[in-house]
């Protein structure tokens, strides 16, 4: 059994893969956290923490000065009843007070994993894959019930958590804070890892020791954002990529979030994660309920790589969905950096012709094909083909592309509207705004109000008409600004602070409908590149444009950091022109290819202007990637050298049977008279011999324990890529 309850000790024990997660009921129904880590047969709660009379920690019962919620490790802590640490939830009553008291009422254990209403979440294909525990807590005075939802996966060291609030009382309740999870660790002797960044510099790894007080990663931008990612990890001091304990927390949500660790006076650490309470409330009328999104918690005793490999496999096979989940992704050419808005049908067809000659499989038409969209100052929302640019329409262009042997893909940005558009002139209240305030713009556009059902209905039908108008097999779904003036003309005053979350619910509804209507289309999410690279989006769209920054050297850190949580099959990676359009760097076509081939491969440049030598190299890259893409997209990924720690980066992909591997090595800057160096590989069979093309035959044990000598190369921005194949005996 993955989940058990001992009525004598009042203890819940969740067994997930090779990990244990233990809780216990204390006193009159307080749910305490006892243990989370490597699997144990049993653990007694009273042995895990000492009860002491702590000064300035108030007591629930004056007769027992050793029991205080201020020192009890809890599962879903409240505000106002002797615990001064950050609560998991916060509720305001009609009388204005905010003190609540949740106690255990009942619980349910069952096989499988339920869906979360209106929200993305991990899933099971067979009920035997997981067991779910629901613990119902109640505040008898006000009729509030909170159901804590836990699922333990059988195969992986994974526990998922969420919470459902139900108002079973007679008065209105207002949620001020409704996080998805909280865990109290008995010590704060960990490092904290998160993934900060900016546009063009997403998901850089930052690691530092926990300190007393609060450390947080959060977004208040209406999206998970370039600036932060909804992921944090607590890492043992001695842990590195391949050994040591790691606790990962990943939020399956695409909007405002909070991921927080509070280290208290006794050096314990409280980790909490969920919808950001900033500018959030939710009104619960009697009989209404509220569901929080899911947090996926991963334990690893094999370092960061062990954690990452769990997230990769889970998110690739039990978060991503649809026909493309397990299918090899096509090699594409996108016209954006080749033409920007300045194109016509002839130019696009010429790019497609050259792409076909080079073996590329998919042509993608980016921004500028609709309305009067000759720049970024107009026409978003007017999803009508620009016949001046495309006299034969999307259908005519797509058929020409298909005749060349390529699939046809299209860029859309359905969440935005230009003030200079027919849609905005007809429906000025359809954007997020507040009365009597200016409507600030980003990239000359406003955000459509997806909290409104009529707006969502319009987008579903309008974009459906576009996608049905031509043989489209790929869609790049973009979103190029964050939310300001967050308000809705369709909501009453007491619900205005629900707008941002209602927007996400509306967006998820639209995406669910679109992907269901067009299951043959491969959808790729994008938000100015990687500004919404989160698990919530992967539920609907199995890949994401990793960053608008296509510079190969910049991408080393971006893709390395992204791999901490997200599978390689989710990462769009393209070769672009030099000097690079984002940073001006000149890297060789070889290096640009090796970086891009470490994800879902494609090109984003004017291939009609390349030399014959460059075209021949691209042809070779395309052929090579076709041969290794299943290994890259679905193999086991190992990080070998971190670009955050030195002048080099390296990673590798290993097949499930360990008969094949692909290794990529990169050095950023040259060094005069540099020492010899060796690269130790991972994940191979130590008893198997492997042939490395161009280098010879090595034992798997030699490659992993002694390493392979790196050939000397001069120059900046160099790369090497080796393919390993097991030698047949």
Automatic annotation (TrEMBL):
GO terms for molecular function: alpha-galactosidase activity. Residues 648-724 form the Glycosyl hydrolase family 36 C-terminal domain. SUPFAM superfamilies: (Trans)glycosidases (SSF51445). The active site is at residues 478, 548. It catalyses: Hydrolysis of terminal, non-reducing alpha-D-galactose residues in alpha-D-galactosides, including galactose oligosaccharides, galactomannans and galactolipids. Residues 29-285 form the Glycosyl hydrolase family 36 N-terminal domain. One of its GO terms (biological process) is carbohydrate catabolic process. Keywords: Glycosidase, Hydrolase. Substrate binds at residues 199, 366-367, 443, 476-480, 526, 548. Its EC number is 3.2.1.22. Signal peptide: none annotated. Belongs to the glycosyl hydrolase 36 family. This is Alpha-galactosidase. It comes from Geobacillus thermopakistaniensis (strain MAS1).
